[in-house]
Amino acid sequence: MPVKHVPQEIAPLVHAFNEALARLAQGYDRHNRFLTDAAHELRTPIAILRTRAELLRQEPQSTRLLHDIERLSHLAQQLLDHQLLDRPSDQREIVDLDDLVCRVAADFAPLAIEAGYDLAFEPSPDKTRVEVNVLQIERALANLVCNAIEHGGGGGTITVAIDRTGGIEVRDEGPGIPVEERENVFEPFYRLQPQSRGAGLGLNLARQIALLHEGTIRILAGSWRGARIRMELPVRS
Ligand SMILES: Nc1ncnc2c1ncn2[C@@H]1O[C@H](COP(=O)(O)OP(=O)(O)O)[C@@H](O)[C@H]1O
Ligand SMILES: [Mg+2]
């Protein structure tokens, strides 16, 4: 708050208030940095652990161990992803939506195929340009495609489609998300199967990123098989 035109007897109060706010902001930054560093630091020991576990003889115990390590590594990545939310909005660039989405889909193609899916990409009928923080949108989409792989029933086609209104849909043919859970799944740490690999942060992150871009994200309702998640971003003319 400005102190300039404040009556003299109030000025110390305004000063104290401003200082308290500054301390709060500092504490918040410190906290955030700590979390990011911690997530980052976690990745090295997890990577070492994985390498060691991969050297073990193949038996049920070691397979389970590798599975647990995967979970840990996923959690560290998701914590790290949250740091992306602090990027200021001036770090945005105008890009072609097809290029951006296609790149993410291509990155996940081997993973999807290995997990038993076909992956289809449907580009937009026209050139669609968006002004975005590329890293953020990539991570949001990566989480949607990951979800289709993880929760999509292990077969059928995962489709990533774009339309000219800036809508991006990720569709799978798995069990889908029940109507009454369609908002809950965006809550942090909320999972339909609590024993699943993830931490329940992916959709929450995707929504926060969509909101930062004045966009939306929701689970579509319809009679088709599987889940359809739709993200909409404002289109640049
Ligand atoms: N494509 C999907 N099909 C069915 N269920 C899904 C799908 N995507 C997300 N979910 C459900 O929503 C929950 C939250 O998703 P998310 O926030 O990404 O967390 P997670 O780390 O568990 O993937 C998941 O645990 C899962 O139960
Ligand atoms: Mg997820």
Describe the 3D structure.
This protein has 237 residues and is α+β, with helices and mostly antiparallel strands. The protein has two domains: 11-86, Helix Hairpins, CATH 1.10.287; 89-232, Heat Shock Protein 90 (2-Layer Sandwich). It has helices spanning 11-54, 60-83, 97-114, 134-151, 202-212; strands spanning 93-96, 118-122, 129-132, 157-162, 167-171, 216-219, 228-232, 235-236. The strands form two sheets. A five-stranded mixed beta sheet has the order 2-4-5-7-6. A hairpin with a 4-residue loop joins strand 4 (157-162) and strand 5. Helix 1 packs antiparallel against helix 2 (60-83), helix 3 runs parallel beside helix 4 (134-151) and helix 4 runs antiparallel to helix 5 (202-212). The longest helix has 44 residues, at 11-54. It is globular and about 75 Å long. The model has no long low-confidence stretch (mean pLDDT 92). Bound molecules: adenosine-5'-diphosphate and magnesium ion. Residues 143, 147-148, 150-152, 172, 174-177, 185, 190-193, 196, 198-204, 227 line the site of adenosine-5'-diphosphate.
Q: What is the number of domains?
A: 2
CATH superfamily of the largest domain: Histidine kinase-like ATPase, C-terminal domain
Low-confidence stretches: none
Q: Give a count of the beta strands, DSSP E runs of length 2 or more.
A: 8
Radius of gyration, in angstroms, nearest whole number: 22 Å
- In one word, what is the shape? globular
Number of helices: 5
User: Structural class, from secondary structure content?
Assistant: alpha+beta
